[in-house]
Each structure stands twice: as structure tokens, then as C-alpha cells.
Amino acid sequence: MKHTKVKDLLNGTKTLHEVKAKGWVRTFRNNQFIALNDGSTINNIQCVVDFENTPDEILKRITTGAAVSITGTLVESQGAGQSVEIQVTKLEILGDSDPEKYPMQPKKHSLEFLRENAHLRIRTNAFGAIMRVRSTLSFAVHQYFQEKGFFYVNTPIITGSDAEGAGEMFRVTALPFDGTPRTEDGKVNFKEDFFGKETNLTVSGQLEGETYAMALGQIYTFGPTFRAENSNTSRHLAEFWMIEPEVAFNNLADNMDLAEDFIKYVIKYTVDKCGDDLKFLEQRLLDEEKSKPQAERSEMALLEKLSFVMDNNFKRVSYTEAIDILKSSKPNKNKKFNYIIDEWGADLQSEHERYLVEKHFKCPVILFDYPAKIKAFYMRLNEDGKTVRAMDILFPGIGEIVGGSQREERLDVLLQKIADLGIDEKELWWYLDTRRFGTAVHSGFGLGFERLVLFVTGMSNIRDVIPFPRTPQNAEF
Ligand code: 4AD
Ligand code: MG
């Protein structure tokens, strides 16, 4: 007999028939009740063992973490909180788990401890829920763009370009090909560059994505990107996944509409599909908040917060308006900010972004028309000659979740910008060809996938929403 997924057993209505399930023991109570989980759902199925007729050697091996195969009859459950259970007729231990050594005992572990055990933390309820939500969000991303006729483009991971011009890149070098990877003193003898050219891991697929948008019309990327920034924050990873749509003939307003519609769609899709996981995560947060003073607790529970984002328009505000709001908030008097903005042209710090979103507007905000000086070279210069058609989307509790812009489509203006920044024009010859041949208005944005997963799961550290986080401290496996 083939085994059935626990999710399907729990959702099925046909009882009193023989079933088989395989999974891992979460708990074993009173020598009788196994809570079995197979990862298909956050919910366990209870399996009732006929302990009088089960040898002691087997009972002893039913421990937390052990893999088991269970055959039995699916019956309506007498216990509260579960519809069905399995009356076990045959139990096979597939893989033992030594209770003296297994780190994932059924108790609450700290997130720090779990991070050190990234390969095992997925066996906890919280991480099972987070990673199922992450998977569903990924699928929703593809579904959204595919339904709208966008084409999925795989841009290079190893590249010679620095799309953001921020210099936060990991260099790619090649080991020598002659089989002597070490010098005499034992050091790794790297070849200088990759195939004779200076290359790095991509920080963004945008520039390559633009070349595809200028042929296929509307495209998106969804892949890993890398930033060698040494920022140890709860919002930054050295390796993160980014979704970058790019659309020919879209202006900045179209770009904002697309980003807002896209975010609402993927959240709605996930709320519809991941109800049990999100309810669990919501309860987890509520329990956590009980230990905080009232003033620090969030005003909305997780699902309410997600509905709020889906049901309300994002507030669209220019950078200049935002600066005026920040200036008149008298932050210096109330000591609200460590870093006070008193001049137009300064970059916003995350505390300013959070003030705008969480205190002032109390909803997601799209900030646009930033000073040219603080943004990347490829953004479309406005008629005022000092701002560019940039847009950042700021989310409550997260800060920046999206960065995008209308692109500079005029060759002469772009060349001037490149020259002013001291970028070598020859490095970008292929990019500039899009402006030489059939240039047109076009726009796009990048959404940091982990920041979206953070928002949807309500987690507070980005290391907890990617399977194996890469941060300056953590790249062990
Ligand atoms: O604002 P960024 O740097 O924009 C770009 O890379 C553009 N090329 C995107 C485009 O227009 N196609 O990054 C985009 C988003 C940020 O808003 C943030 O959500 C996320 O990527 N991000 C990070 N996420 C996790 N860890 C980091 N170190 C991140 N850096 C950026
Ligand atoms: Mg940005």
C-alpha cells in the first residue's frame, strides 16, 4: 500500500479504511499517542499505538525525531482539536533518533539556537510554517507574472558589471587549472581573474533584464543576488533572492501600479493557501508579545495586518514632501531620531523610513522623485535637473521592500551621467546599445524576496526566513 500525506488524511472524510502514513515523531505520550508530522502541513496526525501488543523494544524506539511508517485504520477522533486519528495496526521504525543526542526536543528553542542548527530547525513548527509560506510566495510570484504575459529571464550570476555602482561585490576568482592549487608556502594560488576578466557575483539582474525587456516587452527575473555589505542588521543578507520585473513603455506611475498590484496579489494568494501556517505564526507572535509592555505591542495581529495591506492603497509621496514631513516632525526636540535630516538631498535612514510608514502615514508608502545624487546612474532624470524618477516602497516593520525606477532612455543624458560618475563607458557598451537602437521609455523594480517573506510571516530577523542564511557570521553550510 502506498502511504498518504498527513495533510490529505486530515482533510479526508472517508474513515474506517486502512491507511499508511510515513513521517517523523514529534511527541510520544503515555506510551500510546504518537503525534506524527510529515511536513505536508503544520498539523500532526495522532496515531494510537496498541501498546499492550507492541514489544517494549519497539516502544522504546518511538522517540522525538524518529522516522516511522505507520499502517492502521483511520477513525474519527475522540480527542479535542483533531478530526481523525489512526488506530495503529503495524508500526515500523525507519530511522532511530537518539533522545540523548537529538537537539530538537519538543520544547521552545531560542531563534539563535535554531540558527546554529539551520539543517534541523526546519523540523520545528515555526520553521515548517515559514518555509511552506516562502514556497507558496515563490509560486505566486511566477503565477502573477506568467498570467500577465511576462517572460521569465535567467540573468547571469557571474558578471562583469556592477549594476548598482555601489561596489558591494564579491569578486569571482578561478583556481589555476594546472592542478596545483597551493603555492609552496601552502597558500591558495588564485588565478587573478575569471578567464582574464574581472568578474563578481551579481548584485542585481536589472541591466541584463533591461536588454530583454527591450525585445520581449515585459520580463521578470527571480534569482539569487549578492551584496558584500558588512551590515549586520536584521534586514540584510549577503545572499538574497530578488524579483526584478522590467517593462518596455512603462513610465514611473505604471511602475508603481505594477509593484502595488503585484505585492497585493502574492500576499492574497498566500493568505488563501497557507491559512493554517499563518494562523500558527500569528499565535506565536501574540504569545511573544505578551511579555512586552503594552505600548510596544503591535496594534494589529498578523492576518489583520496582511488584510490591511491588501485592502488599502499605498500612499504615494515625493521625496521632497517626505523631507518636509520629517523636518516638521520636530524629531530633535523629542529625540526621535539619531540622525536628523535638515537638508534636502540627504539619504533617508531606516529610522526616517519607519517614522513615515509607522507613525505618520500608518500604511505602506511609495516614495518617489529622489535626488539624483543618492541614486544609481541608470535612473531617468526629471525636468528639474536634480531629481530622478526613482521609487522605493516602504513597509511597516520592514522599511524598504522595493527599489525601482523609470530608466534613463536618452543616450546623450545617460552618457553624460556615466562620464560624471567616472564609470568606463566601454564596460557598458552592450547596455548602451539598448539606447542606441530602438530606445524607449521603460521601467522596472526589484523586490527583496526575504523582506516580503519577513512581512508575511511576521518574523523579525531576515536570517529566519531563508533556509541557509549567508551573513558575515554565518556561511558554514
Ligand atoms: O534597492 P536595490 O539595491 O535595487 C536594485 O538592485 C535595483 N537594480 C532593482 C531594480 O530596479 N531592478 O535592491 C532592491 C531590493 C531592496 O528594496 C531590498 O528589498 C532588497 O532588494 N535588498 C536586500 N535584501 C536583503 N539583503 C540585502 N543585503 C539587500 N539589499 C537589497
Ligand atoms: Mg534601494
What does this structure look like?
The protein is of the alpha+beta class and 477 residues long. The chain has three domains: 6-105, OB fold (Dihydrolipoamide Acetyltransferase, E2P); 123-165 and 203-464, BirA Bifunctional Protein, domain 2; 169-202, no CATH class. The chain contains 14 helices and 16 strands. The protein has helices at 6-11, 56-60, 111-116, 125-147, 206-216, 252-273, 275-289, 302-311, 319-328, 331-334, 350-361, 411-420, 429-436, 449-457; strands at 18-29, 33-37, 45-48, 67-76, 84-95, 151-152, 158-159, 171-172, 199-201, 218-226, 239-248, 315-318, 365-371, 387-395, 399-406, 442-448. An eight-stranded mixed β-sheet has the order 6-10-11-16-15-14-13-12, with helices on both faces. A five-stranded mixed β-barrel has the order 1-2-3-5-4. Helix 4 (125-147) crosses helix 7. The chain is elongated. Magnesium ion is lined by residues 392, 400, 403.
